[in-house]
Amino acid sequence: MRLLSMGLIGLVVAAGAACGGEKKEPQFPPNPSATTTEEAADDSWITDDSARSDADADPIEQQPSDDATELPKPEFTDGMSVNQAISAVPSHYDYVGIDPEVLAKPLMDIETYKECKITTNDHFTVRIAIWNGKVVGADVKAATPAKTECIDRVVRALEYKEQVESINTVDYSF
User: Is residue 151 within 8 Å of 117, Cβ to Cβ?
Assistant: First the structure.
């Protein structure tokens, strides 16, 4: 039994040495009184903020208030094309899609164009950009400049009850 326990102790000692069982003493920084002047000036290891001067303090990032975080809104001008309206929207706006059938519904109704005297024989194409329920850009092609101008004016006056701060487009051919 004694032989067995001695063999076991030897095995444990050998395994401990093989696994890096050698114990290392922890390394402590040198005595503060023995440091050089240059090392003594570095107080970055001090955790008490009151012991550090304001000049050495880490800059604190200030979070802007809710009023200051308001991002720029798009600026639309009268007579913009669809591509100009799309380009006027800053990139930080997310796309919120509205069903194209909902947007095309007033464009499909011939009554929308009654002031332009559109008949069922007339052919034209309309592409519009909608922002927050209002048409902010339009591209119209019709047989005559007068009809093009009239249709353009009519579609730019359209308003939608679906109001999202996102640019949506719809194409329609009559």
Answer: no
For residue 133, being part of any structural domain is answered with yes
Helix, strand, or coil (residue 121): coil
In the numeric block, the tokens 């990139």 are attached to 91
Report residue 136 as tokens. Answer: 């902010």
Structural domain harbouring 165: 82-173
Are 151 and 113 contacting, i.e. CB atoms less than 8 angstroms apart?
Answer: yes
Beta strand pairing status for 124-131 and 167-173?
antiparallel
Residue 135 maps to a domain: yes
CB contact set of 57 (below 8 Å; sequence gap of 6+): 49
- 140 belongs to a structural domain: yes
For the chain, the domain total comes to: 1
**Distance (Å, rounded) from C-alpha 157 to C-alpha 140?**
14
Place of tokens 């009559």: 174
- Separation of alpha carbons 81 and 84, rounded Å: 5
Q: pTM, whole model, 2 decimals?
A: 0.59
pLDDT in tens, 84-123: 999 999 988 888 989 999 999 999 999 999 999 998 899 9
Q: Is residue 60 part of a domain?
A: no
d(CA 91, CA 149): 31
